[in-house]
Amino acid sequence: GAVVSQHPSRVICKSGTSVKIECRSLDFQATTMFWYRQFPKQSLMLMATSNEGSKATYEQGVEKDKFLINHASLTLSTLTVTSAHPEDSSFYICSAGRSNQPQHFGDGTRLSIL
Amino acid sequence: GENVEQHPSTLSVQEGDSAVIKCTYSDSASNYFPWYKQELGKRPQLIIDIRSNVGEKKDQRIAVTLNKTAKHFSLHITETQPEDSAVYFCAASRQNSGGYQKVTFGIGTKLQVIP
Q1: Does the first or last residue of chain A, that is N or C, have fewer Cβ atoms within 10 Å of its Cβ?
Q2: Distance CA B39, CA B29 (A)
Q3: Taking CB atoms and an 8 Å cutoff, what residues of chain B touch A44?
Q4: Are B89 and A43 a contacting pair at CB < 8 A?
Q5: What is the mean pLDDT of residues A44-67?
Q6: Which of A100, A101, A112 to mutate to test the interface with B (most CBs of B within 10 A)?
Q7: How far is CA A2 from CA A22, A39, A106, B95, in A?
Q8: Which of the two residues, B52 and A92, has the higher pLDDT score?
Q9: For all residues of chain B together, what is the average pLDDT?
Q10: From CA A16, how far away is CA B95, in angstroms rounded?
């Protein structure tokens, strides 16, 4: 089956640090990658949709200058949380897909800002 | 935009019994409905999906039904086992003008199977 790799799995850093999370589709070319945020015991909230070679589409309420998304190739998308603060602590999950195919999720990144 | 409602939020069943989780969606243009199982701290795993041109789909102990007219779909798990304990998310999706799917998730159902 399709494999999506997300790295790192866990980050603990000081407030004000920028953190980059990578999402790779290992055995297929993903035309679209999605970034989600999940708070404890809550659902997956879509943050942005990223298409290879174009700007990401952000959901309402998500600051594009805070959460920088780059989708440079059909197998790699990155999410950078700039100047992270404690309220940014969460579980971030990416998923990758192709038109008309199911999404496949990465393992997630647990971000803790001290 | 799409709105997906899911219930119940928690469900406890005895091992061997059936479990049913129900979802409704608002966007009649949605045409793809996946179900995901998420264990604590792990990624959501696709367990079954259904497209709008099908009313029912079954895979061993898991089945999903779709009523397009009423805009609701359900997950049925028969002969539940303790390893079925997890959080289950329904989702609704549609192709948009960009050709990709935007998926809206339900709030999740925490299923506990009691041995």
Answers
A1: N
A2: 30
A3: 44, 89, 105
A4: yes
A5: 89
A6: A100
A7: 17, 26, 10, 20
A8: A92
A9: 92
A10: 38
